[in-house]
Sequence to fold (60 residues):
Amino acid sequence: MPVISELRDDIKKYISNHGLSKKWEKARQAAVTKYEHGKMEKRVTRLEREVDVLRPHLAA
Fold:
């Protein structure tokens, strides 16, 4: 089962300011619950690779 890391403070603030807390929690729970499903696992792996590619640009 995947572990979803804690959100950065700026992202938490954005979610809070835009009233997205319930949607985020629902999405987070769905990702954790459905991870075992094969297609979901492939999507998570693909997203992890994309984040790794974008990470140097996000740090700036």
